[in-house]
Design a protein that fits this description.
heterotrimer; A mainly beta; B alpha/beta; C alpha/beta; A: mainly beta; 5-stranded antiparallel beta sheet; 1 helix; B: alpha/beta; Peroxisomal Thiolase, Chain A, domain 1; 9-stranded mixed beta sheet; two-stranded antiparallel sheet; 18% strand
Chain lengths: 136, 373, 355
């Protein structure tokens, strides 16, 4: 078999992956990520896409030494919970060694390679976060 | 109209390279030693479409168990699959639509290399936004564990009372995968899986099968299913209001409490302790411990077998093992066995037990209240 | 020379990106048994190395993101995205569409990947000047980016590095950061460096890459441009040449009459190696980071195969408000984490693994 992952599935999510698009509930006003068809808080189905801020705080993180198959090049994989103010995001933390990270530090979104579909399939890109290069 | 556990069967959990999933199911049936013909079979299994490449597993199970012709279905709700199989059987029996239901929980987690299995297991979380990022089963629990330690000022060593207790409890369980004692220091010092979670903070990957017959016939039953409930919560942890809270499980617990007339007197708790942090979240979410206080309660022995809230007296997922689709049925089998005095571990005064299970960090939650006959 | 004078075009935004990892030259010498004098002769201390989750596309995307931040134009007004690289992540499938999608430029836009060794990004730059002046598009995004390959053990390995730069170009409207007052391109069939289809690494003609290739093409393009615009080296405050190593730009500058002081501000190769399609464009980005209104910049990228472009750029008032709107080249230069050769081979996926 030449491919493991669905091409249309990745394609449908690409904008959310590249531009960090969350959902905003028109009824209760809350913003959430990932975007679902219905508000996780009030249940409304009036959800509009909203581009999330690209900088936030690293709430907490974990260094994974035994990640699932397919992430070996990036191991140890750092998984962080990032607070963007309006919503939280779980993502890989990149461009940092574990000892360079601190809870509460400023991080910013970048687009990076997440995984490759075998040797000849698609390269999957998406958001990750890294320590801020330049303080605003 | 009551629903009862008529019989149960178990296999020893571990790496069963010599046995297929079907061999394990047959071994569990032999262990159960009950030829009551079911009028429905409910199979609980998570990974079989990948691990052994079989769909319509339920029909194949019906054939190999000798019940060709009996209707058979499979349920899958992640780590609560077994619990929800029991819930469905309970409701179907209570409504009088069936008389005897055979529950089969079976899982092979050692057919592939561990990293491949970790990838399959990571799908208990949101697959497009969490598993996609390489977030493994341990990693989201690790985020919760770090947040718990930070918020309440608890140390890894204090939390490690739990896995040490589970290894102690498993010593007397012949079906348990890990039957050796560990101390809190060795838990903390073991190889890190996803910090702070170490190998000894985690459940082992095991193969296993459990079979249970639930019936409407009270005669010679081992235990009674007094009530079963389930609820769901948001899937991604970023949709949760608080990653340390399990609202769906609280809903389940409160519903079971209401059904019992507002008063629960639980002699044994049986909870899914996937990782060291999980039982603390469970105790604090259902309210038997205040937020941040369960670690002290556990360290004071309140959850020991001799304590106020004996929990996971057979070793928990931590030391007994976590055979995913079969986990809920292992819990039910062991509890029915303890309450009926047919299990190698006995709790003579125990009359009522509560089984609680969650998937992931609480996206699916279920509870089963079991009473002595 | 038959150069054409054209109307002035404008630079609205510029952006750079350099990965954080650095491989010291002495590490390469240690592994492959080079005499220590070889890297010091190149005037390069260390080279930038892309991380395990980076490629020329992600590098180009971040540079483009920075350019967009500085330009403050509506992405939907960008009508063309051209991505120049010789290390595209896909042999077939445009990187430019992914970049355009990620920046919100799609769907009313042209998008394509260009290949001309190290000057594809510059070809994009010049083509977009024409497209905007001709009224085909309002703004265009030109990107030069590479994670340059080199046969392990080849002298090329000392300098082949990773980085990129991007520019948003349009017609002048008075708010621009700089004016491109003239441009010229000089191209011949000169096979100094190439990579055959499906081959992982390029080959080159050693000394042949110098005199008949680098020097001949750059000297001719720069002389033609100065003649066209009636400018002399003294008219320029900065001169930026393609920088395959730290010596060639100084040498070609000397031949053309540009003193070292005008070349050094735009010379980034000594710190990060040769970023190929990034190279001279990264130099331009660094100069724009610090230039003052009224200053004139000469830029002359070069690509093997072979060709050189020359541009005369005048810095405008609009540069000042843009300089701090995004990380500067120096912000990325100081963000460095040294790696050894082993980590370098892992990050660059040079170790053969079964996946």
């Amino acid at each position: 078999m030449s491919m493991e992952y669905s091409v249309p599935l990745y394609w449908r999510n690409r904008i959310n992956y590249y531009r960090l698009i969350g959902g905003k509930c028109k009824k209760c006003g809350r913003i959430f990520f990932p975007p679902y068809n219905r508000c996780p808080y009030c249940g409304s189905d009036e959800i509009e896409p909203v581009e999330l801020p690209r900088t936030g705080k690293l709430l907490t993180y974990t260094v994974s030494y035994n990640p699932p198959e397919g992430y070996k090049l990036q191991t140890p994989l750092i998984i962080g919970l990032v607070d963007l103010g309006v919503a939280k995001v779980v993502a890989q933390i990149t461009d940092a060694q574990p000892d360079e990270l601190k809870e509460g530090m400023d991080v910013e979104a970048v687009v990076r390679r997440i995984r490759e579909d075998r040797t000849a399939g698609l390269i999957h890109y998406a958001y990750k976060f890294r320590p801020l290069v330049k303080q605003e | 109209m009551g629903v009862y556990v008529k019989s149960y069967g178990l296999t020893k959990l571990g790496r069963s390279y010599f046995k297929s999933l079907y061999d394990l199911v047959n071994d569990a049936l032999s262990d159960m030693d009950d030829t009551t013909k079911p009028d429905l079979i409910i199979v609980s299994s998570l990974f079989t479409s990948t691990s052994i490449g079989q769909l319509d597993l339920a029909s194949k199970i019906a054939e190999i168990t000798g019940y060709k012709g009996v209707p058979a279905i499979r349920v899958e709700t992640g780590e609560t699959s077994g619990h929800n199989a029991v819930l469905m059987a309970f409701r179907l029996l209570a409504s009088g639509q069936y008389d005897n239901i055979l529950l089969v929980g079976a899982e092979k987690t050692t057919e592939f290399l561990a990293a491949r299995m970790y990838k399959e297991i990571s799908k208990v979380f949101d697959s497009e936004y969490e598993a996609y990022m390489g977030v493994g089963h341990a990693s989201l629990h690790a985020l919760a564990m770090k947040e718990y330690m930070r918020r309440y000022g608890k140390t890894h060593r204090e939390l490690a009372y739990w896995p040490a207790l589970m290894h102690q409890n498993a010593l007397n369980n012949p079906y348990a995968a890990l039957r050796f004692p560990v101390d809190q220091d060795s838990v903390v010092k073991a190889n890190t899986v996803s910090d702070p979670i170490t190998l000894l903070d985690s459940y082992p990957l095991v193969d296993g099968a459990s079979t249970v017959i639930l019936t409407r016939n009270p005669n010679s039953a081992l235990a009674e299913i007094k009530y079963a409930a389930a609820a769901t919560d948001v899937m991604p942890i970023t949709h949760k209001e608080d990653i340390l809270d399990l609202p769906a499980l609280r809903t389940v617990y409160n519903r079971i409490k209401e059904e019992s007339g507002g008063d629960l007197s639980i002699d044994i708790f049986e909870v899914t302790d996937q990782f060291t942090i999980t039982p603390y979240l469970i105790f604090e979410s259902i309210g038997i411990a205040d937020k941040g206080s369960s670690v002290d309660m556990v360290n004071n022995g309140l959850f020991d077998r001799s304590g106020q809230y004996p929990t996971n007296v057979t070793g928990g997922l931590k030391a007994r093992g976590h055979p995913f689709g079969a986990t809920g049925l292992y819990q039910l089998s062991e509890i029915a066995g303890i309450l009926s005095g047919t299990f190698p571990i006995s709790m003579e005064d125990a009359k009522e037990a509560l089984i609680l299970g969650i998937n992931g960090l609480g996206s699916n939650a279920s509870g089963i209240l079991v009473g002595r006959r | 020379m038959n150069g054409l004078l054209h109307d002035p075009a404008a630079i609205y935004g510029w952006g750079a990106y350099i990965p954080r990892y650095r491989l010291p030259m002495k590490e390469i010498a240690r592994i492959w048994g080079w005499h220590e004098g070889v890297p010091s002769g190149l005037n390069v201390k260390e080279k930038s190395v892309d991380g395990p989750d980076e490629d020329s596309l992600t590098i180009g995307l971040e540079a483009a993101y920075n350019a967009l931040k500085r330009a403050s134009v509506n992405p939907k007004e960008i009508g063309v995205v051209m991505f120049g690289s010789e290390s595209k992540p896909y042999a077939v499938k445009p990187s430019a569409t992914i970049i355009a999608e990620a920046l919100g430029i799609t769907p009313s836009t042209m998008a394509s990947d260009l290949e001309f060794a190290c000057r594809a990004g510059s070809e994009a730059f010049r083509a977009i000047i024409g497209m905007t002046l001709g009224g085909l598009v309002k703004y265009g995004l030109a990107i030069g980016s590479d994670t340059a390959q080199a046969n392990p053990g080849d002298v090329l390995e000392f300098t082949a590095s990773s980085g990129g730069a991007a520019f948003i170009i349009g017609k002048p409207n008075g708010t621009e950061a700089a004016i491109i007052e003239g441009s010229y391109t000089y191209v011949t069939d000169t096979p100094d460096f190439w990579r055959r289809a499906l081959q992982p690494y390029p080959l080159h003609g050693e000394g042949f890459t110098g005199e008949p290739a680098y020097f001949h093409h750059i000297e001719n393009s720069v002389r033609a441009l100065m003649e066209m615009l009636d400018l002399k080296p003294e008219d320029f405050d900065y001169a930026i040449f393609h920088q395959p190593n730290g010596r060639f730009p100084l040498k070609v500058g000397k031949k053309l009459g540009f003193p070292k002081e005008k070349i050094l501000p735009g010379l980034v190769t000594p710190f990060i190696g040769n970023t190929y399609n990034g190279s001279a464009l990264l130099g331009l980005a660094r100069v724009l980071d610090q230039a003052k209104p009224g200053q004139r910049i000469l830029v002359a990228p070069f690509g093997s195969g072979a060709g050189s472009d020359a541009y005369s750029i005048v810095v405008m008032e609009g540069v000042k408000e843009r300089q701090q709107k995004a990380p500067t080249v120096d912000d990325y230069l100081v963000r460095r984490k040294e790696v050894d050769y082993a980590l370098y081979t892992k990050f660059r996926n040079i170790i053969t693994r079964i996946v």
